[in-house]
Specification:
The complex is a heterodimer of chains A (414) and B (144). Chain A is α/β, with parallel strands linked by helices and 414 residues long. Helix content of chain A is 39%, strand content 17%. Chain B has a single domain, classed as Sufe protein. Chain: A, CATH 3.90.1010. The chains are: A alpha/beta (414), B alpha+beta (144).
């Protein structure tokens, strides 16, 4: 692959690493503008995982044979790569899970289920993915705690003006929000909210599933207490994600899933849990998936996270320019310099499913739907939006293909 | 435009833009609301029976959603008029699919079936007959 440094990125060269683009879709070049849904995978990750299966596969942590050692080294090596990516202080703080959704459920159940009670409150935002909304809504209700939503203002930015009132009305124990909105691409400045959370004595839970693929995420700089990522959105395989949590918090927590690898000793009278992070990794791990995530981290680090972020800002600026020329279009979200590679829009009153279907015929893949953000859709007053999203392999001509496709959609529905 | 005619036949676009039986029927003999959570499509269906309490005299629908869901429901209102509630409650979905006449992916099939499913629920509710398995929730509907 092309190793780039600084803030420039050669998307055309990187794109050659992705075998998915070596095909035509409906006899057209593929414009894959659905990376916020799930990213495509580079040959480096695909091949490394195949090779691991062919040369190094066995169960981890318990085999004394050489394959068991290799497999364990592969898994634990990946954990260290994720630690470094997130600038976490301690590798024991990295818990492998299936995806960010599972990471957030783990915190909601294991922390929330034991620390929330009547009179306490969980605060989320109107811009959350359901994965950082529903688990808290559910656990709060189950524990008899309150569930409070920070609203969006008329520009769909977080409206923090009501925080003082929330602090007066509730005993805030959890503040949970995303770093980058999957629906609008908004990159939040979480500083004020994090400081406020800690002033309340609350933990701050950050959903970084949409941030980690696109920008440098530093758990120490963010000063959060838990942070969740998904491998499949950052060039890694599906079925693997990670939770980072402060060691002191993780140590004090009850386990989430029980059995298998997470055990220290089992007697009829009593069972004790393993050390971090194993306490939270019940059953045989997604070994090769974790290894693949480590390879994906290598890949995006080599491309450069600052370069990826800059590339996406450029693409968003170009896309907003091209799309705003189209009659009848409504664009949602902040200016290009404050968003990751996401552009949500509606085209007149044409339903996003119809838009996406006609685009598909032209080789353009976008997401059409509520993006697991129904509270936001309700606020926008729409059932769904179209969403084009970009990544390190996205080229400006794919955005041209999208714009041309939207003119065709207009013709079909004229 | 030929390559898109396969997906959106003129008749579908016509039903979408000029839906038949669009509106609300006050004091309907049968009614139900249906939703497709995947894409946010919604449809409410109202049925008036003739004096025999069995023949479908009038069907109206109200909703929002994609062209396929709204056009299919519009076509359905014409298709079932004058037929009996019992017959329509167990209508073969292929009859509607033939009328729609375009190939549908599994996701779009759910859109196309929204109106028919909702109509069947309305008729079963009005007649007090048990909902067939799969009609209790749209998600559980088997659309193969």
């Amino acid at each position: 692959m092309a190793v780039t440094t600084g803030t420039t990125l050669d998307a055309r060269t990187l794109r050659a690493d992705f075998p998915i683009f070596e095909q035509l879709i409906h006899d057209k070049p593929l414009a894959y503008l659905d990376s916020a849904n799930s990213s495509q995978k580079p040959r480096q990750v695909i091949d490394a995982m195949s090779e691991f299966y062919e040369t190094s596969y066995a169960n981890v942590h318990r085999a004394v044979h050489v394959l068991g050692e290799r497999a364990t080294a592969g898994l634990e090596g990946a954990r260290e790569k994720v630690r470094a990516l997130l600038n976490a202080p301690d590798v024991r703080e990295i818990v492998f899970v299936r995806n960010a959704t599972e990471a957030l459920n783990l915190v909601a159940y294991s922390w929330g289920g034991n620390n929330l009670g009547p009179g306490d409150a969980v605060v989320v935002t109107e811009l959350e993915h359901h994965s950082n909304f529903v688990p808290w809504q559910y656990i709060a209700k189950r524990q008899g705690a309150d569930f409070v939503m920070v609203p969006l203002d008329e520009n769909n930015e977080l409206d923090l003006s009501g925080l003082d009132q929330i602090a007066r009305d509730f005993n805030v124990k959890v503040v949970a929000t995303n770093l980058v909105s999957n629906a609008l691409g908004t990159i939040h400045d979480l500083g004020p909210l994090t400081r406020w959370a800690h002033e309340q004595g609350a933990i701050f839970v950050c959903d970084a599933a949409q941030a980690a693929p696109h920008m440098r995420v530093d758990v120490q700089a963010l000063d959060c207490d838990f942070l969740a990522i998904s491998g499949h959105k950052m060039c890694g395989p599906s079925g693997i994600g990670a939770l980072w949590g402060r060691a002191s918090l993780l140590q004090a927590m009850e386990p989430f899933l029980l059995g298998g690898h997470m055990i220290n000793s089992v007697r009829y009278e009593k069972t004790t849990w393993g050390e971090l992070p194993h306490k939270f990794e019940a059953g045989t791990s997604p070994i090769v998936e974790a290894y693949g995530l480590g390879c994906a981290v290598d890949y995006i680090e080599a491309a450069g996270l600052d370069a990826i972020e800059a590339h996406e800002h450029e693409l968003v600026a170009y896309a907003l320019g091209r799309l705003s020329e189209i009659p009848g279009i409504t664009l949602y979200g902040p200016p290009a310099d404050r968003r990751a590679g996401v552009v949500s829009f509606n085209l007149a009153d044409i339903h996003p499913h119809d838009v996406a279907q006609i685009l598909d015929r032209q080789g353009v893949a976008i997401r059409a739907g509520h993006h697991c953000c129904q509270p936001l859709m309700h606020k926008l007053g729409v059932a769904a939006t179209n969403r084009a999203s970009f990544y390190l392999y996205t080229l400006p001509e794919e955005i041209d293909q999208l714009a041309d496709g939207l003119y065709t959609v207009r013709k079909v529905f004229a | 435009m030929n390559e898109f005619e396969q997906m959106y036949r003129e008749v579908i676009l016509d039903h979408y833009k000029n839906p038949r039986g669009h509106g609300v029927l006050e004091g309907a003999d049968a009614e139900a609301e249906g939703q497709n959570p995947l894409c946010g499509d919604e449809v409410s269906i109202y049925v008036a029976f003739a004096d025999d309490g069995e023949t479908i005299e009038e069907v109206k629908f109200f909703g929002r959603g994609c062209a396929i869901s709204q056009a299919a429901t519009s076509m359905l209102t014409e298709m079932v008029q004058g037929r009996t509630a019992t017959e329509v409650a167990s209508l073969d979905k292929d009859e509607l699919l033939d009328e729609i006449g375009i190939p549908l992916t599994p996701v779009r099939l759910k859109c196309a079936m929204l109106g028919l499913t909702t109509l069947k629920v309305a008729l079963h509710k009005a007649k007090g007959t048990p909902l067939p398995r799969g009609l209790a929730g749209f998600d559980e509907l088997e659309l193969t």
